[in-house]
Amino acid sequence: MRLLVLGTAGYHPNDRRDTSCFLLPELGWILDAGTGMHRVRRWLKTNSLDIFLSHAHLDHIVGLTFLPDVVWNKNVTRVTVHAEPAKLTAIERNLYAPSLFPLRPDFQRHLLDGSPFEIGNCRISTFPLRHPGGSLGFRFDWPDRSLAYVTDTTAGVAADYLAAIRGVDLLIHECNFRDSDRAWAEKTGHSHTSAVAELAAAAGVGRLLVTHFNPLDDDPDPIGLAIAQGIFAPTLLAEDGMELEF
Q: Are 67 and 105 spatial neighbours (Cβ–Cβ below 8 Å)?
């Protein structure tokens, strides 16, 4: 299955990266709707879209306002947003307030309550993450592969969600800060390099794709990839425009 990386920055975009957005093009599934959402249209081939939201901070949802353009003249008959009830209420009340965005896109709502659910042959489970305002992680299990998406939280081998990601083939995990900025990671509810790699090793995942980088760090390697690979060798640095098979 193919994964398209459409946005890899945290907080705000920069010249190199849009904010969080990943697409499974064969399924029409989107993981978070950051500014990278504008790229979905180029790859959209399905007649449905399922958007899975980790939380409602602006860098993960502003792309919902791009939906009219994303589906313009496309044969899309259904869009479903999967989110926690309080987060979806906040989005509908604030992001789509008439004075901010007068064209409310038409989409179905699937309210996540912590119970696993299925779409086709995929079992989808969610788990809470520690982050200001709250966030959700997702695990997707198909008969022949698995994927976990974890963003906006503080990683570590003692993380409550370690069991929820154990053994996945591919773990997409935020890594907003370098190890030298560990204090900022703790303060803001984000992760730093070695903690993410140690978590991946402890969870026995197949590969780790790190993302959600500090947008003020314009180094092509914003986290110190060699440090992560020294702890967990199959670690990849996400880049906007990357395509990955898993």
A: yes
In residues, how long is the chain?
246
Residue 118 pairs with which residues in a beta bridge?
A: 123
Residue ranges of domains in the chain? 1-113, 122-238
pLDDT tens digits, 79-107:
999 999 999 999 999 999 999 998 888 99
Give the pLDDT confidence of 192-230 residue by residue, as tens digits.
999 999 999 999 999 999 999 999 998 999 999 999 999
For residue 53, what is the DSSP state?
A: -
Residue labelled with tokens 């993960």: 60
Name the one residue in this structure whose structure tokens are 């980088």. Answer: 213
Q: Is 192 left (phi over 0), alpha (psi -120 to 50) or beta?
A: beta
Domain 122-238, CATH 3.60.15.10 — does that match?
yes
CATH topology of domain 1-113: Metallo-beta-lactamase; Chain A (3.60.15)
